[in-house]
Amino acid sequence: MDMKILVNLVFLLCAISSVKCQEAKSQQAILAEMKKSTFGIELCYPNSVKRFYKANGFNYAWIKPKDKAGQTWTGMLLLDCVLQFGLNHNDYHPEKLSYDSLRTMINEPEKVSEVAKVQYDLLLTDALITFMNHLHYGKLNPEVSSAKIDGGGLKGFSAESELIGALKGKDFMLTLLSVQPKTKEYEQLQSYMRLIKGQYVDDCYEVPETEARKIAINMERLRWANINGFNYIHINIPSYSVKLHEKDTTYDFKAIVGKAESQTPVLSSIVTHFTTGPDRKVSQSVFTKTLLPQAIKNSDFFERNHYEIYDIKGKHIAINSYRIRQINSNPAQYFARQSNACDNSLGALVFQFSNKFNIYLHDSPNQALFERDLRALSHGCIRVQQAERLAELLLKYDGSESKIPLMQKSVNAYQKRNFILSSPVPVKVTYLTCEIQDGLPVFYKDIYHLDETLENQLYGMDESRIADNLR
């Protein structure tokens, strides 16, 4: 064998041996750190970090030679830009993940101890896993706690698995950011936040911090909503709106929601069917002999007991003391229906979806209320204008367009009939006090006074508010 070739081969084998020796050394250092109950450092998602390094062969993920450290710098850049996602720098180990330390570890690794490298690698992994969980679930998700996420039993999404996939993929940054909600509402808020916390800052154009915080807390709420797919019903409480989203179209309806003392809850469910003629008609004898005498004594009797009154032609009658006496003078010209739901009447249609709050999406006999600007008027249920139109669209989307005439007939005759959807439609009830329209934010009244509490949880109470609360 040529001596030159032999020498080169020896050098190559030595280099390979040196690399393997270094890999073994780093694996041992990471394993040693893993065996410590607290890693020697405080992590947000310690069990997720363990699962990540097990999947990564207990190798360094970020402390690499400078020609292979591109993803490391991208990860650090994302953590620099968390304000553009409505998040807080302090949640991602900013005091320990310094650029100066990282440059030394990558450019002059011999100057840094193995323990310091391992701890930096673990912290950066934890910071990115935390960032991804906050983007996907939200930081303060009332249904999915950080402990539940770190336990690893949740189906569908795993930040550590996504992070492993990002390291192996072609576009590291895109993969990390793809864990965010994909709804139009969220994407518009995120784009605007990126504008005011990125481009506007660079252009020395200031946006009030109160506006940025309002956008941030509503991005947080949309992360909780966990909306997937193109087809769903979105009910937003502060905007008094119901939207039926289909792939290329959105249908808008006005809504009436719960009063401040009987709030409509935020929830997720599926509409499985709807019912025509849902309210029970009271017999004329009971109406005349039992209900009217009670109402004469107490004018709020009908409302408290979920009754609505109609004339003989089916026209809804608004009740007050004078009208009750008028009805009592000729009761045969009127009748009552009683609802077993949270509101006095479900109207001609009710859309059924399972929920622990026992609320419904339904029609209303009093359509004039939809013309008011402030529509927090119900006992918790959601009333929708043009309920029959919504029912038609659901039947059409379900491939049951032929059932529309029967539904219309049942509504007109007030006949009780169930219409089962072969493909149930997701329904999301949210509390969003801000959305983007035509590129600019639109703010809604915080009717249940929930914004300040969430803002304080995300940002902490500032000094001016602390002073106000002490007065």
From TrEMBL:
Pathway(s) this gene product operates in, as recorded in its UniProt entry: Cell wall biogenesis; peptidoglycan biosynthesis
The entry's keywords: Cell shape, Cell wall biogenesis/degradation, Peptidoglycan synthesis, Transferase
Superkingdom field: Bacteria
Transferase as UniProt keyword: yes
Transferase listed as a keyword: yes
GO MF, one annotated term: transferase activity
Occurrences of domain L,D-TPase catalytic (ranges): 231-405
Pfam families linked: Scaffold (PF20142), YkuD (PF03734)
Family membership: Belongs to the YkuD family.
UniProt name for this protein: L,D-transpeptidase
Protein species of origin: Pedobacter ginsengisoli
